[in-house]
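#random but structural
TW: two for the price of one
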Amino acid sequence: MFDIRWIRDNAADFDAGLGLRGIAPMSETVLEKDTERRDHVAKLQDAQNRRNAASKEIGAAKASGDEARAQHLISEIAQLKSFVQSGEEVERRLDQELIDILSGIPNLPFSDVPVGKDESANVEHHTSGQKPEMNFNPQQHFELGEALGLMDFETAAKLSGSRFVILKGALARMERALGAFMLDIHTGENGYTEVAPPVLVRDHTMYGTGQLPKFENDQFKTVDGFWLIPTAEVPLTNLARETIHAENDLPLRYTAFTPCFRLEAGAAGKDTRGMIRQHQFSKVELVTITTPEASLEELERMLGCAEKILQLLGLHYRVVTLATGDLGFGARKTYDIEVWLPGQDAYREISSCSVCGDFQARRMNARYRKTGDKKTEFVHTLNGSGLAVGRTMVAILENYQLNDGTIEIPDILQPYMGGLKIIEGSTGA
């Protein structure tokens, strides 16, 4: 959400920022609606001022015995009252129309974000580790999981349809183990506070982080008006909503391990096999609420926290800076971490770490007060995956597979797996 006053004063910069995203200029449309609203408000104020003045004139007219003048003023006041009452309804409509326009406009990228229309313009930032050397043709995760009898897409489809999976035995345990491992690192070493948030939220919560109204068709909604969260970013970021925080209390760093739900409406034909793109998946989320001065440094810190999980698991990955045309709706800058999958012979996204500036804070009315200052400012928000649990499991299966189809378990994860070192199948849990 943008400050309309900033757009008035910086229309050219606003349009230029949208242009970097490949979006046509919108300042004219926004400012026309704003002018219409302001002109109407001015007319209402004039009418109210005239009404107040006319009320005083009635007493003077009656005091002087000018009954005709008094009756004329009474009639004028009645007309003004009617205009103000109907005009207030128009004002509410115009306010909402402006909000609706602003709510659908994405955030503006920072100046150092690579310019490009899509992911092909993303820029590699750095890599970590080495691709594993295998003297056999590596299989994809779903081939491994199904052969082990621990990954069942067919039965999941009978229960729920496509883009669901049933994990059994050691793989079910691995999902739980990965979540616990990630939370232990983020809370014990990275300074995040663990939260167990609701996974059902209301409209205003989804609006606060930018899922509504623009991405309504990508979400699951219950019959009684709840939304299933697409990511724990939604409830975690909204912990700051409608609150004024003390500067000394910032940053606030939260983490949560939750199920996530996405319709994947625009993913027809993409990743139809396996666990890469599911309607339901587990993820450990990272969220930070901080000051404007600290937000860019916090982005680098958050990226490092997410990377550490992959490093501890011994997985090769690269970090890319997303181009302007590939940025998420609320982001000003985003790093994607892409883990190497030998079975696919490709890098696949496993985390996105984004800084949103005050874009979400304005939608949530989340503010802070500087020490010794009376006025308030909007906080800055950041979010990142730390990590997507299902995709981390995919990476472990493909990178730690052996020639016979069994799976080694990374050393650091073995204590969370009850000491299990190798997954050998449905009896190996």
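TW: number two ↓
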Amino acid sequence: MAVPEQTVTQRRAPTDWRGEKMRGRLRRRYRSERAFRLLGLGAVSLSALFLAFLLWTMVSNGFTGFLQTEVRLPIRLDPVTLQLSSSQLAGGNADQALASADIEAVTLQAARNIYGENARQILSEGAWIYVRDALKADPTLLGQQIDLWVPVSSELDLIAKDRATPEILVRAGETYRSLDQQGAIRTALNTRFLTAADSTDPTLVGIWGAFKGSLLTMLVTLVLAFPVGVLSALYLEEYAPKNRWTDLIEVSINNLAAVPSIIFGLLGLAVFLNVMHLPRSAPIVGGLTLALMTLPVIVIAGRNAIKSVPPSIRDAALGIGASRVQVVFHHVLPLALPGILTGTIIGMARALGETAPLLMIGMRAFISAAPEGLTAPATALPVQIFLWSDEVSRGFVEKTSAAIIVLLAFLLAMNGVAIYLRNKFERRW
């Protein structure tokens, strides 16, 4: 008996993979997947391109900041002219004796004897500091004729690094060519940039003062924010009852994490300076302010890390007779530690790059020496970068980019530490 054609059609599979309509659907689906893949690849490539452009710009503008142009300076360190003696330099008051000596005038006169009236155009304003440091390091140089390499002026430094404007070339180009022909000028590593503090002369500035201020500020931030944040996360996840108050606290912490950083600066200005009368522009005030800003980030990261610990571990520990505190500190906290440390270092890295809250509490002062303690006047590396970027002299442009390179390297190092700690303490279950 023949089966009707309508019955055969009804018995076919609901999806006819060989049909033209289904093939068209598959082609459209594959096209959509390819387009989405290409879109994602394009987004990643564009992000990588912008990152490469940023790094290239910073490196190309800032690598010369780690170099210094120097000029040869034959100089006689006459004890009569300097009014110094070997006994003064060998004693405990060498700094006081050097401060009373007119080394700047002797340095300038030595340059005039060799280079004529162009000496002021050739030498940096702080060239005499190198003479003083050489005499302090080796008191036997007193009374001798020596050759020192001292920094040149900012204009000659820019010419040597091919960063001079046409106006600078007109003013100092001939002087640079004359020194170059005499072999009296060279480019060397600028170690002072890594060991000195701020200065009004771009050839004498350094990042150590601001970098040490950042380290002291981060130390205060870490000491305060890490234990308080971890204990708060443990309490909220392991002990706090689930009620209206804990929900309000959770919402408040999430909101605090999104508050603009300048608000924390205003809070630090109002509480730590105006109410508690702590020293202005000090690392302890900066650390307290940044701790308030970092604390919500650590609490949120800590809670998420604690939540990721399987409940079976808690149940197993309780089942063998462990107390609630032993469960938390012997099992839950060690397993959650990688996530907590990662969140903490990310929060610290964010705090390290903040400028607005530190500006509000006065850490933008001119600091010519590295801070000696938590209450000494100090600035931070991001603030120093901001101040240098606002300078008129073109010599500060490369110093700003060089300081940014140092800041980026420090941030990358902190992120590397976070990855290392996460892999070191991570456990599988």
